[in-house]
């Protein structure tokens, strides 16, 4: 009986092990690390490094794209948002029947990132989906992609989480590596002048009231 239970436990453990993706940390560069399945491929081309790996339920791609050396620094967060929007338009234009879904913002360490899903109908029995995490810095743009079919969406949860939640950044990366104005927003000059004018009016009113009170004769009671 003990032998049967032991054999059953070994079979169960083997099945559970085969049903899980084993990840290992991979250095994309000196600033960014992500976990990929143990077997992965790395390809270097001009100004771009691509990592690819097949999971149990999806295909993972990480792209490190060096930006142009004369890349103009972004000034404000709205400029960063424009970079994100332009990238999404470019990705969507690559497929004739693609649509952007689940659009949102997230943070990785101190940096802002864009997340979205591109869903495409290529005429097959299922829809092809790509989950994106887009991370932009002044020098490099990082893209983390997870490919899967909508028919297996209910299976990808743990594998997707193991991939996307493993992104780690060096402390050297800060928000000003994305855009320059990261402090509190400056108040509009009109608002500042209006506030100053209100204060001046209040001071004038208080001073005028005190002067009027000082000029009033002091009434004295007559002695009986």
Number of helices: 4
Instruction: Report the CATH superfamily.
Output: Mog1/PsbP, alpha/beta/alpha sandwich
Helix content estimate:
25-40%
Mean pLDDT: 83
Number of strands: 10
Determine the N-to-C terminus distance.
Answer: 121 Å
Name the helix and strand elements from N-terminus to C-terminus, one letter apiece.
HEEEEEHEEEEHEH
How many strands, what sense, and barrel or not for the largest sheet? Answer: 7 strands, antiparallel
**Helix-strand makeup class:** alpha+beta
Write the layout of secondary structure elements.
Blueprint: H1 2-18, E1 23-27, E2 32-37, E3 41-45, E4 48-54, E5 59-66, H2 77-93, E6 98-108, E7 111-120, E8 128-136, E9 140-149, H3 157-164, E10 168-169, H4 189-215
Antiparallel strand pairs: 1-2, 2-10, 3-4, 4-5, 5-9, 6-7, 7-8, 8-9
Report on this model:
The chain is α+β, with helices and mostly antiparallel strands. It has helices at 2-18, 77-93, 157-164, 189-215; strands spanning 23-27, 32-37, 41-45, 48-54, 59-66, 98-108, 111-120, 128-136, 140-149, 168-169. The protein has a single domain (12-177), classed as Protein Transport Mog1p, Chain A, CATH 3.40.1000.10. It has 4 helices and 10 strands. The strands form 2 sheets. A 7-stranded antiparallel sheet has the order 3-4-5-9-8-7-6, with helices on both faces. A 3-stranded antiparallel sheet has the order 1-2-10.
């Amino acid at each position: 009986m003990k032998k049967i239970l032991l054999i059953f436990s070994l079979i169960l453990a083997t099945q559970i092990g085969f049903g899980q993706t084993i990840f290992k940390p991979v250095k994309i560069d000196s600033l960014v690390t992500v976990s990929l399945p143990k077997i992965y491929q790395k390809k270097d081309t001009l100004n771009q490094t691509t990592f690819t790996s097949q999971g149990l339920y999806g295909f993972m791609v990480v792209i490190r794209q060096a930006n142009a050396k004369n890349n103009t620094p972004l000034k404000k967060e709205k400029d960063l948002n424009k970079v994100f929007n332009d990238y999404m338009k470019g990705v969507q234009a690559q497929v004739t029947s693609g649509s952007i879904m689940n659009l949102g913002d997230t943070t990785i360490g101190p940096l802002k990132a864009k997340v979205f899903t591109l869903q495409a109908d290529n005429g097959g029995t299922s829809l092809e989906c790509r989950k994106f995490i887009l991370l932009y810095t002044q020098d490099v743009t990082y893209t983390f992609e997870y490919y899967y079919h909508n028919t297996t969406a209910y299976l990808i949860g743990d594998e997707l989480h193991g991939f996307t939640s493993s992104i780690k950044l060096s402390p050297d990366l800060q928000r000003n590596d994305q855009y320059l104005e990261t402090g509190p927003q400056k108040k509009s000059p009109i608002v500042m002048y209006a506030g100053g004018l209100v204060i001046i009016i209040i001071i004038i009113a208080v001073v005028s009231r005190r002067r009027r009170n000082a000029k009033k004769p002091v009434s004295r009671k007559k002695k009986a």
